[in-house]
Amino acid sequence: MRLQPRQELLSVWKAISRWCGSGQEFAWGDRSGRNSISDAELLLCLLLPPTKLPGIRFDRPDETKPDVCAALAPFGSAVEIPQRVVRLIGEYLQDYTDPETGLPEFSGGSYLSTAPGEEREPTAEQRALEVVDSYATSVVLTTAAIGFVRGYRRQVRRPSHREEIDRVEIAAQRRLTAAMAGLQRSFTLSVFRGDSREGRALCETVNPEDGYSAELVARIRNSLGDVMAGLRELGSSAEEVDALLENRDLLFECGWSWGIVRDAAPVKTPTTVYAQPGLAEPAPYLYFTVVAVDGIRDLFSRDTRLKGLLDEEQQSLARVLNLQWDLAQRYWSTIATLGEDRWPVEDLPWRTTDEEESDYYSLLVVSLVRHALVDRGAPDSDLARIARVLEDLADRGRIRRRPLADDPALKLHHPGTWVALNGSELVGPDVPPLGWRLGELGTLLLGRALAVAAQVNDHRLRARLLRLADEAWRHLEQRRLRDGRGTGLWDEASNVYPTLPHRGAPSWYHTTRVVQCMGTAADLIRGEPPPGLVLSDVASELLVEAEDVFDEEQLRGSGEGGPALRDSLSRQAIGLRRARRLLPTRPGTAAALILDVLRELDKLAAARESEVGD
To answer: S-S: 256 plus which of 42, 96, 244, 292, CB 3.0-4.6 Å?
Structure first.
């Protein structure tokens, strides 16, 4: 694989150190300025890599590697690096806490934008609106931060520093709880008639040839029966769920809106009541649903469970989020794979129920389908269909193909797909329409290709996906900043597409997503590659022959010979045992060991024949 995670992550750390300056005079902002999401993304660039590659961890000063110290040299020595990172986490948590209420705040800030062609900028009240992206990013950040400070605390002896670590962990736990409550209150259900505008759009997505029909509505409802039954368990929108279950003409969508939905029920915990009023329309957004699903997944990860990162209050919230997460993922994956011949997700581009179309939406749906296929242990033939979609999207997005003159596909990279945040206009009179830019097509494609490659068993399909990942990485490599303080960071799309505007400064939004792809690549490399069927058969036949020859030597009494002969046979026995152990997962290595054994056994046979000839 072209991407080498360790080397690239250290290179990113060097570039961050150069852009942000010394640990004592840290510069947070990127080209978008500061907000609760971009600052969290910057911290994630520091905290996520050690969770994927323990060899570059820096929370144990005595074990910090020289190349890690060199990459983070502006932060100080091996002892000072984790101290400074703890202070940065604490600074972030303090900066994004409301001084009046003491509650964490999750505003979108400079990531929120007005519609294309709109001359007015978002108002201060609009920029203060809390968004699901901040909730989900905070879940990932705080779980990583809590794990980091707990590991580092064991290395600290100074009481004052241990007290600082304790304060940071308490603040991180408070933000994690608030983020989980925000996600819970942003989940929504949208119910509509099958013959409505939304219903017809959904039917045309599922069956583009025939479109709406009563039979198709019945088929969609039947395939979503378990999801509809699960909605009742959430305990909210009881009347809407009852109507959905009883009226066979109704269809629905479920997932996350862009923020806390209007009339969302308060979330009560033993310490706090989260009842901030919501403005978001009660309809799911595909982008925010994917962001929420990816963030919530961290709550159920193996590390989170083993390290006991969630307290009792958070575990209660996690149970509800787990149900929401499962229902949303099952809903979208069911819709996207409905049918036997051609799945809706294979019919590019994906069309939403508000009749918007984009290849970007197709890539988002692929994310949800991939998780669902892996969770249910789908065969490689299903994953191969997803691989073909990814390849098509790479071509359509001009990642593997050169762009045409005035190519509309370049808008996917810059300025990106603009999504209106309906309900944001309720913040006050005479405010401009507010929206969100979607523009990380390349990193999404790379991450999904690597994730699918890690799940397939067919070595040919895996090789196809790795080739796609290499091409996506080559594309992203070219988009690194090439000059100035931000050299080595992302994202400069004009390096690949000269007609796009030059940005000249890094974006933590893009850089973090590249770092996450490097973590996915590390997981892939650590995993066992699927054994090739032909190679497994060859290795199995070699093992049979080698064991047969070895048994013949034992039968001749060679094991009773001199010390050198006994040592040789002992080594061959060890080699055969190891080869048999490796055969199911690494047949190539097993074959190499078996060939060594056969070579040594043949030397014994040749020596015997020579003695007989003499």
So the answer is: 292
Average pLDDT value for residue range 408-420:
91
Report helix, strand or coil for 351: strand
- Cα–Cα distance for residue pair 216/210, rounded to 1 Å: 9
Q: Is 540 exposed, middle or buried (0-12, 13-18, 19+ CB in 10 A)?
A: middle
Residue that wins the pLDDT comparison between 78 and 307: 78
Interior angle at CA 342, CA 337 and CA 343, nearest 5: 20
HSE toward the beta carbon, residue 232, CA cutoff 13 A: 9
CA distances from 442 to 400, 477, 511 (A): 11, 11, 12
Structure tokens at 17: 């150190």
Distances (CA, A) of 284 to 135, 220, 252, 253, 362: 16, 18, 10, 7, 16
Whole-angstrom Cα distance, residue 273 to residue 36? 22
CA 77 to the chain's CA centroid: 31
Q: What are phi and psi of 97, to 5 degrees?
A: -125, 130
pTM: 0.89
Strands across the sheet containing 417-420: 112-114, 434-438, 417-420
What does the pLDDT average to over 162-187? 97
Asked whether 30 and 38 are in contact (CB, 8 A), the reply is yes
Query: Which residues are within 8 A (CB) of 294 and not within 5 positions of it... i.e. 6 or more apart?
Result: 136, 367
Contact 429, 117 (CB under 8 A): no
